[in-house]
Amino acid sequence: MPAPQDAIHVALAARGASEAKYRVLADTIQEGLFMAEAVLDGQGEPVDWRYLEANPAYARMLGREPGSIMGRTVLDLYPTLEQHWLAAYREAAYGIRPIKLEGLLPSNGRWYEHSLVSHRRGQFACLMLDITDRRWAEMNHRTREDLFEGVFQKAPLAMAITDAAQGRFLAINRTFTELFGYTFEEVRGRTATDLGIWADPEDRTRALAGVMTEGSTCTLAVKVIRKDGTPAWVTYSARAIDLDGQLALLSTAVDSTEQHLLLGERETRSRLLDRFMERTPVAFAMVDRELRYLFASRRWFAAFGWSPEDWVGRNLLEVYPLETEPWREVARQGLAGATLKDVSLAGLGAEGDPVRMALEVCPWEESPGVIGGLILTAERSRL
User: Is the pTM higher than 0.85?
Assistant: First the structure.
């Protein structure tokens, strides 16, 4: 496709060679074409531009008949035309240089690219190409980029975009920098593996495999290493995206270090409690306010001939029938906050044999001032 200036020169050449050929060309092209000459003031300076020619396409752009344009000036039709347009017409008409500029035409609300060249001193020809679709596409693209940039950079999650093939960073947000300590300049073109972010490099392989097999998002709990060398635990999610025809990964990381450490502490306490229950020489149990067993020591189970499966989660009186009324009074006092010692209650063992329990009962609190149940310490004697 010839450049706009070339198209103008073709039209001008046709006009010089044959008025008929020029008229056919000017009347059939879809682009607007007009020619204008300078209107001079008393000092010989151009202050306006009078139309010499205007093809039907240009007249349609203005919403006018071609004949209503001839002899009129630009400022007649556009009295509020910005000065930079008049300056561009001057530069073109006096052969300073060809001009190309873009603008919105108020008469139809569309964008045009104006290509201006001089064919005679004091005159210029202008070819107008409709670029509205292109401008809208550019504005929409910029809008999407602005929206993405706003959401991406302001997101409270650490976010990164990497190429899927090698994992090289293409973009990171501010929260990523806060979590990992790296700026974009430090990660640009490098991979998380290069930087030592993955505590286990196989985690990226698993994440990528998950995205490709699951087809959308893969979520993993992983250990990472920050720039300063300290470890962190994150909930890592990644999904495949199309980035200008390139397969990429959009990943997020939520810092779960505190939760991970708390969970680790709970697991440690749970293991210690299990070991204590296994090895303590004392027969004791813990029940809630409904007298359901929460846990008990192995010695407790051995003393009364029951297995853990028979006890945990069941009501104390259901598993080990005690004297009902005396026990209700013991439970009432304990749940009211009293500690009771040397309580002797009769009941039945696992094989139905009568036994007597020598109990010490004390309450336990689930929060300050709130009693959650009872702790029982016992010795068994046969009746």
Answer: no
